[in-house]
Inverse folding.
């Protein structure tokens, strides 16, 4: 006799995920402190979503790795602000004229063939071979900053180290003389953070903008009178030979001073926070310095300081990964969302210092791949090695939930990082 097995109970249907709003708001402290749960929901729902920024700007955000990689290499997507439509200009062109025209024609906002010609002026200064030859000098700069920290904690590693080290390194690489480097106001870098025309902070924003413009003019005048074989001098000569316009010269110096410093400052903080949250990995990295190059790649993937790219535009209505995008609407790629895509990175939310290969997109991809990538990698290696070696017992001195993440739209990091350590070596 055949015994019939009782039927298995029907499986409980999985609850449907709550639909995403349209547009998806990229606002608020929970989002800035940890955007990854939202990015996960967006990736699962599709590669392209309409999003809303705090300034009121709407854009199309690309989230999955394959879609992001394709968008970064898509010839249809241009960077020139002239491609933006009236809807974009109404809210996104927050830098007033004439400054917008004078400071916003750098490499990040140029398309070929002009972008190709302009990029040639900067690549020689940032070759891996040249950067590696400067590593001993970078080490001296890092050690000098650590020497100035208190003998034992607490200390703020942004005020005492991360806010200064990248700019000191940058000055060495581009040929910014010491007396001018010492006068650079880090607050000028905040002109890339949107402040709308009716915002109460607008007067301070415009004051910073005018201060930075005056500083750039002083740098140009100094290099014209005191030429040397360095990047800044070569850019000034290119302007005098009419190979660059005055606006392009000022914009490229603007990009070097701001984009060449602040993202590395922020990346030092995001890397340290990731290690503080994984003390076993921090201890391992301190004990195995040969692991640093691979560890830096994983820290860049795990929590990139350059969270989102700058604007891209289609010059005609077109389809992007299944979504119809109107001409002149802004398209932005989420590098952080791409770098946590489980279809490309196994266990993407795990900090794995042995991860290899690690084809992260922290420096972008394609023709706009960051020309300073080799410099940033070396700075992070030197900074982390110096801090972990010379500050034994380094740990976060506040609760994790009390970390104040910067409100910047495109970047991740913190302006304060209170730490403790046993003693300064």
């Amino acid at each position: 006799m055949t015994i019939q097995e009782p039927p298995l109970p029907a499986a409980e249907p999985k609850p449907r995920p709550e639909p995403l709003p349209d547009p998806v708001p990229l606002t608020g402290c929970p989002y800035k402190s940890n955007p990854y749960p939202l990015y996960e929901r967006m990736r699962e729902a599709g590669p392209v979503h309409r999003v809303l920024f705090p300034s009121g700007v709407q854009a199309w955000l690309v989230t999955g790795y394959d879609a992001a990689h394709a968008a970064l290499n898509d010839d249809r997507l241009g960077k020139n602000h002239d491609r933006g439509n009236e809807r974009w200009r109404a809210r996104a062109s927050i830098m007033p004229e004439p400054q917008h025209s004078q400071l916003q024609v750098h490499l990040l906002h140029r398309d070929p063939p002009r972008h190709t010609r302009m990029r040639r002026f900067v690549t020689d200064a940032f070759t891996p071979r040249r950067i590696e030859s400067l590593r001993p000098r970078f080490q001296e700069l890092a050690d000098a900053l650590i020497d100035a920290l208190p003998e034992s904690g607490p200390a703020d590693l942004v005020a005492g180290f991360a806010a200064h080290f990248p700019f000191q390194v940058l000055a060495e690489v581009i040929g910014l003389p010491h007396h001018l480097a010492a006068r650079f106001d880090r607050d000028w870098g905040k002109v890339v953070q949107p402040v709308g025309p009716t915002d109460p902070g607008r007067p301070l924003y415009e004051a910073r903008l005018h201060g930075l413009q005056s500083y750039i003019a002083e740098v140009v005048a100094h290099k014209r009178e005191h030429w040397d074989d360095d990047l800044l001098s070569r850019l000034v000569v290119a302007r005098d030979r009419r190979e660059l316009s005055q606006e392009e010269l000022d914009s490229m110096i603007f990009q070097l001073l701001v984009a060449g410093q602040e993202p590395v400052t922020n990346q030092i903080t995001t890397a340290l926070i990731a290690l503080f949250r994984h003390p076993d990995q921090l201890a391992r990295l301190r004990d195995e310095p040969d692991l640093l190059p691979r560890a830096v790649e994983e820290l860049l993937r795990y929590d990139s300081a350059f969270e989102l790219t700058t604007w891209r535009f289609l010059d005609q209505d077109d389809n992007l990964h299944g979504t119809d995008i109107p001409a002149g609407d802004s398209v932005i790629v989420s590098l952080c969302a791409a770098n946590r895509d489980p279809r490309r990175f196994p266990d993407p939310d795990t900090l794995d210092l042995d991860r290899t290969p690690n084809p992260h997109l922290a420096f972008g991809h394609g023709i706009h791949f960051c020309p300073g990538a080799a410099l940033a990698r070396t700075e992070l290696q030197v900074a982390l090695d110096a801090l972990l070696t010379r500050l034994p017992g380094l740990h976060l001195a506040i609760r994790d939930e009390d970390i104040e993440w910067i409100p910047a739209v495109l970047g991740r990091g913190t302006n304060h990082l209170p730490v403790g350590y046993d003693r300064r070596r």
